[in-house]
Design a protein that fits this description.
Blueprint lengths: L18 H7 L4 H19 L5 E9 L3 H14 L7 E8 L24 H10 L5 E2 L9 H4 L4 E2 L3 H8 L6 H13 L5 E4 L5 E4 L4 E4 L13 H14 L4 H15 L12 H9 L2
Parallel strand pairs: 1-2, 3-4
Antiparallel strand pairs: 5-6, 6-7
Helix pairs in contact: 6-7, 8-9, 9-10
Amino acid sequence: MHPPTADLRIRAIKPLIAPAVLEEDLPADDRRIELVRSSRRQIDDIVTGADDRLLVVVGPCSIHDPVASAEYASRLAEVAPRYAEDLLLVMRVYFEKPRTVIGWKGLINDPLLDGSYQINRGLRIAREAGVTTILNPAPAASLDDALLSLCDYLTPNESEAEALTGLPVTTVAEAEKAADALLARGVGAVVITLGGNGALYRDKARSVHVPVISAGPVVETTGAGDAFNGGFAVALSEGRDVVEAVRFGCATAGISVTRPGTAPSMPARAEIDALLARG
């Protein structure tokens, strides 16, 4: 028997709990939903200048103790009304540390901080806080259906969608077929980025092709995927419709490809808004 040549660094595969199970066990109540909506509206008003207050983002950053974090939040909630005329206080909490290569990668990945990686437990804790999950499957690799079923949004490019489905993705019609294959595996919604052809959004209720949003000649595409996902996540966090969030992601990526590098190519918010305003 020949020695294995694939998945050499994988010790084990553990199925993850499905999002629908978490949503049923831990539904978001009306009070929580309204708090999120109201906070997002106020933040948008401050950022756009409609509200002259200051936005103050404070908090423990990467939390490791949910009890202590809840206590912090309750204390912040007590003082917030005192300064509400001049300040909007927002608590910042990270459940994951995506830039961390060595060491603890966050509460979802390792909630017990002991290397046991009880991700299902971490996901349950995150669900209690209403976290939306976006998975950018880069670089292309095989993914278990149990993992895919935890994704609210999956955002592959053409080659990654081909690797995940075994289907060609060279046209919008082919992208739709690949998206359907991913939806059948339990993904909540699929966004396939199509390079110069924009992006395809598809869920079980609708399918929308968003054309590319050009900001000028293409110089380098290395950071395009990161730019798209960052813009897409920002727009979703602001409460935008998902198709508008895809357009925002396309605009972010459209600017990034006009510049060399990855991090240096990322645009400022004002640049993205200006490009979208051009129609």
